[in-house]
Design brief:
The longest helix has about 80 residues. This protein folds into two domains: about 280 residues, Rhopdopsin 7-helix transmembrane proteins; about 160 residues, 2-Layer Sandwich (Heat Shock Protein 90). It contains 13 helices and seven strands. The two termini are about 60 Å apart. A hairpin with a 3-residue loop joins strand 4 and strand 5. By secondary structure, the protein is α+β, with helices and mostly antiparallel strands. The structure holds adenosine-5'-diphosphate (ADP). The site of adenosine-5'-diphosphate has 21 residues, from helix 11 and helix 13.
């Protein structure tokens, strides 16, 4: 029967009690069941009655392993139940606690283990009946789990104290185990006989085992019918299969202690107890790793966002400082023209016009900076590098003329197109050009600004901005891109750091080298548009 695919609600924690099993999990579970059945059919053969030498350490080792496995599984499930506030999980955890604790009287009464007749002075039937009660108990708890889980979903989130419910469940389970032990041992003589002697077992045991297997089957069917089946449910089903095989082997194949069939039954018993525990541990470790990854990536994302915030404000301050200075100077000049005995209205009007232009520029700068940081990878388009260079040159043209700087920017027709955000890349170039102009303005002699573009490692286009200015200070290439590094009296040292943020967001690289002879060269790379032909 195919179960409808049900997704986990978003508000529910990711635990294996809520996660639906993946395809691999399902195949793995089926594989374990099939392998168990194959192993079962081999052990159920004629070899099963073969009597092995009695190894005294086997029973205590087996009992301790089951006790520890079931107890750890119970603890993990109680933990999950408190996390999910799930009554169903409390029932299943109690089931594991019961199964684990029942091993203790079984071991204590096992003939020949501590004393020849068993430690608690139990009769012949007690050990077998304690086993039977363990076989009854586990599927009963699984049935309770399945019924509670499929109850009205909001019912799972009960109001009472989780801790109190878990504590009372533990107390009741311990009390039941103690009561059952006392009753079985005290009533040994009155119990229907399972063992005739240490080697032979009654036919009653066969009927009883048949009923136990049916009880397991009921639990299995109810788990199968759970609507929102989880990883835990899947592996509980596999564990119940191993349980059923264990009971069958114990009753019909190798009831005599230390026969090959009896040992095989114990191995299946061990399998059923270790299965859910292994899956729990595996899933918990996997979920923990995923959680850790998610936390780390969230932290990185947050840092990147904070950086962007810092960068936006610093960038705004950097860009509007200059027009603000113009506005202040013009306003002062305007006041002076008006303060005269005969105010010069024409000149005052001129200064006001300059103020209006500067305000418009400030507004444009703010819009530009905002646009720069709003754009994301999906707004990148295929660009012609030369268009970007020409766009940037147009912005700085006046300043180039003012400082009598010659420009060399020969377009390379064969360059592939690049993938990028035009305004951002233009901003990078404007920044590099402005720095170059500032550097050359301080120095006499030939003033040339050269812009070159070329293919870099076939996947990138490299743009270089070279000047004939004062050059970089020794070692400056290492820290020049750090925020707040500036050598200018009115500089903020943000220009290059913003350039780096933009280029790195484009998956490119930016660096500086000393120019041959004098000046500095700034280079940056931007990825080639994969859809672009290598020559245009
Ligand atoms: P700012 O322009 O505010 O000073 P930048 O980040 O643009 O900040 O530049 C940082 C520093 O790098 C400048 O102060 C300057 O010392 C140096 N620099 C940048 N470009 C050049 C260049 N082309 N030539 C020489 N020095 C440069």
């Amino acid at each position: 029967m195919m179960q409808p695919a049900v997704s986990v609600p978003e508000d529910q924690p990711l635990t294996l009690a809520t996660l639906p099993p993946g395809r691999v999990q399902k195949w793995l579970a089926l594989g374990v069941v099939l392998a168990s059945l194959a192993a079962f059919s081999i052990t159920a053969g004629p070899l099963s009655t073969f009597q092995l030498r009695r190894i005294d350490a086997f029973v205590p080792a087996y009992g301790t392993a089951i006790f520890v496995n079931d107890l750890i599984t119970a603890i993990l499930l109680f933990n999950q139940s408190s996390l999910l506030r799930s009554r169903a999980l409390v029932a299943m955890a109690s089931g594991y606690l019961f199964a684990g604790l029942m091993v203790v009287p079984w071991l204590l009464t096992f003939p020949g283990l501590f004393t020849p007749g068993g430690l608690l002075g139990a009769g012949l039937q007690s050990t077998a009946w304690l086993s039977v009660l363990r076989y009854i108990g586990f599927p009963t708890f699984a049935i309770a789990y399945a019924l509670l889980k499929d109850a009205d979903p909001p019912e799972r989130f009960w109001e009472g104290s989780v801790g109190a419910t878990i504590l009372s469940s533990v107390a009741i389970t311990v009390a039941v185990v103690c009561a059952v032990t006392v009753l079985v041992i005290a009533g040994d003589a009155y119990l229907p006989p399972i063992a005739i002697d240490r080697v032979h077992f009654s036919t009653f045991w066969h009927y009883l085992a048949g009923c136990l297997i049916l009880w397991n089957a009921v639990a299995l069917i109810l788990l199968w019918m759970i609507r929102r089946r989880s990883v835990l449910d899947l592996w509980l089903m596999v564990a119940l299969c191993a349980y059923a095989i264990e009971i069958y082997l114990s009753a019909f194949v190798g009831p005599a202690r230390f026969s090959a069939g009896w040992i095989a039954a114990r191995i299946f018993g061990f399998l059923s107890s270790i299965l859910v525990l292994s899956v729990l541990l595996y899933e918990i470790t996997t979920l923990y790793t995923q959680l850790l990854r998610a936390v780390l990536s969230y932290r990185r994302e947050r840092e990147a966002r904070l950086m962007t915030g810092d960068t936006v404000s610093a960038s705004l301050a950097h860009e509007i400082k200059q027009p603000l200075t113009t506005i202040l100077a013009s306003a002062n000049a305007g006041l002076n023209w008006l303060d005269r005995v005969e105010p010069d209205l024409d000149r005052a009007k001129d200064t006001l016009r300059r103020i209006v232009t500067a305000v418009h520029r400030t507004d444009a700068v703010i819009e530009n900076v905002r646009a720069n940081f709003k754009v994301r990878a999906q707004t990148r388009t295929s660009l012609n590098v030369d268009d970007v260079i020409q766009g940037a040159l147009a912005v700085v043209r006046d300043r180039l003329q003012l400082h009598r700087i010659a420009v060399q920017a020969d377009p390379d027709e064969r360059l592939p197109r690049i993938m990028g955000e035009q305004i951002q890349l233009q901003q990078v170039l404007v920044n590099l050009m402005m720095n170059a102009i500032d550097s050359m303005a301080m120095k006499d002699g030939e003033r040339v600004l050269s812009i070159r573009s070329e293919v870099d490692h076939s996947k990138y286009v490299m743009v270089s901005v070279k000047d004939t200015g004062k050059g970089l200070e020794p070692g400056a290439t290492d820290w020049i891109f750090n925020p707040a590094f500036t050598t200018k009296a009115d500089g903020m040292g943000m220009g290059l750091s913003i350039c780096r943020s933009i280029i790195e967001a484009h998956e490119g690289r930016i660096w500086a080298t000393a120019g041959e002879g004098r000046g500095a060269i700034f280079h940056f790379t931007v990825p080639v548009d994969p859809g672009s032909p290598s020559s245009r």
